[in-house]
Amino acid sequence: MNIKKAEFVVSNTDPGKCPGDGRPEYAFIGRSNVGKSSLINMLTGRKGLALTSSTPGKTQLINHFLINDEWYLVDLPGYGYARRGKSGREKIREIIGAYLDEREALTNLFVLLDCRLEPQKIDLEFIDQLGENGIPFAIIFTKIDKISQSKLKENVDNYKARLLETWEELPPVFCTSAEHKKGKDEILDYIEKINKKL
User: Fold this and answer.
1) Under DSSP, is residue 76 helix (H, G, I), strand (E, B) or coil?
2) Which among 11, 127, 129, 177 could disulfide-bond with 145, CB atoms 3.0 to 4.6 Å apart, if both were Cys?
3) Which of 118, 183, 114, 173 is nearest to 143 (CA)?
4) Taking the alpha carbons of 6, 196, 35, 88 in that order, is the dihedral positive or negative?
5) 103 within 8 A of 70, measured Cβ to Cβ
6) Is beta strand 6-12 parallel, antiparallel or unpaired with respect to 62-67?
7) What DSSP line would sit under 123-163, residue for residue?
8) What percent of the chain has pLDDT over 70?
9) Which class is domain 6-197?
10) Comparison of pLDDT for 182 and 78, the residue scoring more
11) pTM
12) Would you kindly state where each structural domain of the chain is located, as residue ranges?
């Protein structure tokens, strides 16, 4: 899939105010500082589409971008940012939960994981909740340019092994580098394949 057009549509905290035209939505989520904005900009080929920041936890709204007039790319707030404080984290959790529960147009959720880290409890718990709620998702490992290929394989295998402790089968897994544009074609082809089945 080639992205010829990507435009910002709306930001808000209420899933009920998200676009109601029924176009499929592909949402991206991850812990703060996982490289979500950089990945979205890389996928769309638009440098400033999603705002990147050296300060984690900047995305606090549900952001809809219309892609090729066909589907929405949805940028969700990052979870687990400690400096938000308990009430701030709770508010973000409610926004994310409401979106995941209420959006019938949500077609697939991409869960972003930093490939440099050991399996994180907060990510594993979030993924298990997706399974319990029947939300279709795929996993994207980010920042693969920051570690060696052997370490990448080891970390990805560790994650898969942890997931297989509770999952019968694994979701699709993608490895990406926003800096080197790796994984772009695979993710966009995956979205296109789903869209053709809708």
Assistant:
1) coil
2) 177
3) 114
4) positive
5) no
6) antiparallel
7) HHHHHHHHHHTT--EEEEEE-GGGS-HHHHHHHHHHHHHHH
8) 93
9) alpha beta
10) 182
11) 0.94
12) 6-197
